[in-house]
Structure formats: C-alpha cells, structure tokens
Automatic annotation (TrEMBL):
Native species: Fischerella major NIES-592
Name of protein: Signal recognition particle protein
Gene, per the UniProt record: ffh
Listed InterPro entries: AAA+_ATPase, P-loop_NTPase, Signal_recog_part_SRP54_M_sf, Signal_recog_particl_SRP54_hlx, Signal_recog_particle_SRP54_M, SRP, SRP54, SRP54_GTPase_dom
Residues where GTP binds: 103-110, 185-189, 243-246
Any one of the GO BP annotations: SRP-dependent cotranslational protein targeting to membrane
EC code: 3.6.5.4
This protein's record includes keyword RNA-binding: yes
The protein's assembly and partners: Part of the signal recognition particle protein translocation system, which is composed of SRP and FtsY.
Length: 439
C-alpha cells in the first residue's frame, strides 16, 4: 500500500502533462456533450480542435487526472469564447438608445421586448415600445397588453401602416418625449424569408439602432447557427437574446451564435412571464452546455486546495528535516478538504482497487491522527522527540483526544519512521505513511 500511496502522491504533486494519448476518452465525451447540447456540428469540430491544440502539454494540477484537467480547459475556453463576462445593453450617449429586435416568428421577440422594457424600467431607464408587426393578427394587441401589464407605453398606429414608417415615427416619438430607450418589436416569419429580411434592413437603415438584438429560441438546436449567419450577414447584429432556456435545452445555441456572429448573448429568457429575463453569464452557460458539473467541481476544488507554493515549501522542509506535526496536519487536512480519501484515491488510475474496508480504515486513521495532533501543544508539534521521551505528555494527549496512550505512541513512532524515510528518499517525494493505513 505504501507503494500505491507513493504513486498517489506523485500524482498529487502534479507530474502529468496533457498529451494526445491521455485525453482521447475525454475528447470523445466533450464532443458528445457539445452535440447533445445542440451546438452546431461545424462549431463543435472547430472548437474542439482548437482546444485540443491549446491543451497539449498543459500541466495537470495536483489531485486530478489529465482528462479531468482537459475538461476544465474546455470549460475555460467555452467561457472565453462566450465572452467571459456579461455584456450589458448598450446605452447611447445621446438618448434615446434605440434597440431593434430581430428573429423568426415564435422565438419570443415580443415577449423579450416587454421583458427588456421591464428590466430597464427597474433600473430607472424609461422605455417606449414600438409595435411594427402588422402581419400577424393580434400581434400589436399582444404588445399593448404586455405594455399595460408592466406599465410601459407602446407606440402603435394600427396594422394598416407600413412597418418601416411605424418604426420611424416611433423613434421620433421616443426622441420628442425624451425616453431613455426605444425598443422596436418586429415581425418574424416561420423561416428565413427575403421579404422579412428586406423589411428589417430598411427599418434598420431608417432608425439607425444602437443595438440590433437577434432573438434566438434555445430549442432551435443546430439551426441556430444558420439562422445567426443569415441575420448577421444580411442585417448585422450587435447582440442576442437566447429564449426558452427554461426548457430542457442545454443552451448549445449560445456557443453557435457567439462563434458565428461574434456578437455577445446579452440576456436569456427563462419563462413566459415578463419577469423571466436574466443577464447572460458565460460561465453558467459553459457548465450547462458541457453538462459535466461534477468534474468541474472536482478540478476547481483541487485547484483551490492544492497550493503549489505550499507544496514546494513542504518539500524544502522535508529535505531540511524540518517536517513536523504541523506540516503533517496540513497534509492531512489537504487530503480531507479534497474530499474523502476514497474519493480521491479512486480518481487516481490504479488506485481504485482498494477495498472499501481499506478505504474506510484509511479515513478513520486520518481522523484519528488529526484528533491526536490537535491535542498537542505547538512545541510538541514542532518537536516529535519530546513525545517519544515523555509518557506523561503522551497520556495527556491521549486523554485530550479520546484515544489510548498506545495510539499516541504509535502515531509518534510512525511519524518518525515516515520522516526518516522521507529524508532517505532525499528527493522529497512523499513515500506515504507506513503503517498508518494498516499497509
Ligand atoms: P414572437 O413571435 O417572436 O414575437 O414570439 P412571442 O413573444 O409571441 O412568443 C412566442 C411564444 O413563446 C409565446 O407563447 C411566449 O409565451 C413563449 N415564450 C417567449 N419567451 C419564452 C421563454 O423564455 N420561455 C418560455 N417557456 N416561453 C417563452
Ligand atoms: Mg411577436
């Protein structure tokens, strides 16, 4: 068992590097996760080959396997591609800020218009909504109703007017009445349609919006990519709102939209209600898309807990024979913080064959050591020889920790054995704790 622990410690010290061979399975899993999240196939291919190239040779952090580390790198890259932080709505130097909503029919444009207006109202930005969808029956009424609900005015002149003209007049009204923001809701079609695109382009030319937001239904899946490309090429978008994320969609469309247009997702829609709008956060979306929260948590935990500088100091101490009970306790806590011993050892290849009895025993031993060290004075921790020569000290510690004097004696002698073994090794590699795991 001591050999295995030695191997474990080598791993914990992070001697691995990511290479083509040790991430094959992880690559396959990441590809599958992205496709399942409905990221566009082409986007998946490009993204993965980029990350793979970037990850080659990366150091694997202590306590995790190369493939797990790779998944963390994928995650970080996803966050980066999606913009790292939330990008808020543009605010024009000279109000009103003009926002043009674009997107297919049924994606949630009208709902998003109201959601956005409510969001702005809450941060004290006054809003005028403009209803230009003259095609769908009751589309104007829908916006008017929503406006009443959230107490935001709607500019409309009926369904006989020309949408471009409505938009122009709406912006004029917004300017005259000193609204902070004018949001123009537009008509969609079930599919990309030349007439719709032409009309949107004309509205855009006439109102010169500060923001053109593409509203994308997260359930659109693979199609989100083509959709984004067409809208971006023909209209030019400055951002997007991803709707219906309250469904089962894993949100892969977010990555496609961003990769293809370069424009940030600014908000996400998470329900039918007007309140159901949230700022878009790349990190949250990245974990949702990847769907590997467990691995990410593990790697993050390991990263937090294992301070490399600390590890190096520890090695110096070992070499200088200054490794004491305080350091030992630190090591024990490190193991504990990183999760149960069993959990950690299982992550290390070749270490997963320990029986649960053995693991249980290891855990118990760790707890026992910690309890006894906790009952030592600072002086005793620094100088284990004090304990070797003083039965009364050992008895006191035994009493304080609830163990027997014999247990304390064993801890002290094990510790001394371990320390001299470490010094013999000379290289500072941690040989494990002989005897302490019943090995
Ligand atoms: P438009 O045709 O693009 O204007 O789409 P609408 O705003 O009329 O919305 C179409 C349907 O999608 C409506 O039934 C909305 O209630 C619904 N909807 C919009 N956004 C969301 C959302 O974020 N989540 C859910 N579950 N439904 C939404
Ligand atoms: Mg609509």
């Amino acid at each position: 068992l001591a050999d295995r622990l030695e191997a474990a410690w080598k791993k914990l010290r992070g001697q691995d590097k990511i290479s083509q061979s040790n991430i094959q399975d992880a690559l396959r899993e990441v590809r599958r996760a992205l496709l399942e999240a409905d990221v566009n196939l082409q986007v998946v291919k490009e993204f993965i080959s980029e990350v793979e190239a970037k990850a080659q040779g990366a150091e694997v952090i202590a306590g995790v396997r190369p493939d797990q580390q790779f998944i963390k790198i994928v995650y970080d890259e996803l966050v980066q591609v999606m913009g790292e932080t939330n990008v808020p709505l543009v605010q024009a130097q000279n109000p009103p800020t003009i926002v043009l909503m674009a997107g297919l029919q049924g994606t949630g444009k009208t709902t998003a218009t109201a959601k956005l207006a409510l969001h702005l109202r809450k941060i004290d930005r006054t809003c005028l909504m403009v209803a230009t969808d003259v095609y769908r029956p009751a589309a104007i009424e829908q916006l008017v109703t929503l406006g009443k609900q959230i107490d935001v005015p709607v500019f409309e002149i009926g369904s006989d007017a020309d949408p471009v003209e409505i938009a122009r007049l709406g912006v004029e009204r917004g300017r005259a009445e000193k609204f902070d923001t004018v949001i123009i809701d537009t008509a969609g079609r079930l599919q990309i349609d030349a007439d719709m695109m032409a009309e949107l382009a004309r509205i855009k030319e006439v109102v010169q919006p500060h923001e053109t937001l593409l509203v994308v239904d997260a359930m659109t899946g693979q199609e989100a990519a083509n959709l984004t490309r067409t809208f971006h090429e023909q209209i030019g978008i400055t951002g997007a709102i991803l709707t219906k994320l309250d469904g089962d969609s894993r949100g892969g469309a977010a990555l496609s939209v961003r990769r293809i247009s370069g424009a940030p997702i600014k908000f996400v829609g998470v329900g039918e209600k007007v309140e159901a709008l949230q700022p878009f956060y790349p990190d949250r979306m990245a974990s949702r898309i990847l769907g590997m929260g467990d691995v990410l948590t593990l790697v993050e935990k390991a990263q937090e807990e294992f301070d490399l500088a600390d590890a190096e100091k520890m090695q110096e101490k070992i070499l200088a024979a200054k490794f004491d009970f305080t350091d030992f306790l630190k090591q024990l806590r490190l193991l504990k913080n990183m999760g149960s011993l069993g959990g950690i050892l299982k992550l290390i290849p070749g270490m997963n064959k320990l029986s649960s009895d053995q693991l249980q025993q290891g855990e118990t031993q760790l707890k026992r050591c910690e309890a006894m060290i906790n009952s030592m004075t600072q002086e005793e921790r620094k100088n284990p020889d004090l304990l070797a020569s003083s039965p009364s000290r050992r008895r006191r510690i035994a009493g304080g920790s609830g163990y027997k004097e014999a247990d304390v004696s064993k801890l002290v002698s094990d510790f001394q054995k371990m320390r001299s073994l470490m010094q013999q090794m000379g290289q500072g590699s941690f040989p494990g704790m002989p005897g302490m795991f019943g090995g």
